[in-house]
Amino acid sequence: MAMDAASVTFLREVLSTTWVEGTLRLGRALRSTRSPGGLLVVGTPGEDPWHLAAHLDDEARLSGLPQLKPTLVRWSPPPGAPPHLSVGLERIEAARRGETLFVVAEEQAPAPLLERVDDARRTGATILALDGGDRELQGLAHDALTVTPAAPLSFDAAQHLVSVAAGELPRRRRGLRERLARLADLVTGPRVPD
Question: What is the per-residue pLDDT across 120-144, written as a single tens digit (0 to 9) for each?
Fold first, then answer.
């Protein structure tokens, strides 16, 4: 996603709200996964969260937190897809204690997904959600961040904030705002003095 200067300015203003706390909380929870590949990221049949998975993969590498390396779980992996894009829903059925199932669903989660989420929770997996107001999904999640159309940021922007927060190490002094400013500079170019 390319961000223009106005979007970056708006994003910086939003950072002073409770959204920062919510994204930091969810980011910290993502780090609780115990092993690389144990962070399962799944969306809905109409939307695979591949972009978020790619950002989490980057954060795993940049932060030195291998447990953030996600496994993208897809509803319908195409035949012949590379291994990292060919993991199907059966992987959720194999979820266990120490793993995290991160459901990213702007739209309502369908019943088959909710059933799998419930099963994963019963086997001890941690359930996290970034959702658009799905009360059933929120009821199954150990922690959730809801981004409704009335929220001050888009669902896509929330995904970016959560992925950056996941890579934020508690012992560092650099804050989320500084990392997002750095990300904004990378996307839009450095600030030029007036």
Answer: 999 999 999 999 999 999 999 999 9
Residue 125's nearest CA partner among 99, 104, 92 is 99
**R_g of the chain, CA atoms, integer Å:** 16
Domains of the chain are 5-188 (3.40.50.10490)
With beta carbons less than 8 A apart as the criterion, state whether 40 and 70 touch: yes
Sign of CA dihedral 78, 80, 84, 86: positive
For the chain, strand residue ranges (E) read 39-42, 70-73, 100-105, 126-131, 143-146
Tokens encoding 172: 């560092």
* C-beta separation of 76 from 85 below 8 A: no
In the prediction, which pLDDT does 90 show? 93
Listed residue (10, 16, 3) closest to 175, CA to CA: 16
List the beta bridge partners of residue 39.
Answer: 70, 100
pTM above 0.85, yes or no: no
> Mean per-residue pLDDT for 168-194?
66
The identity of residue 141, as a single letter, is A
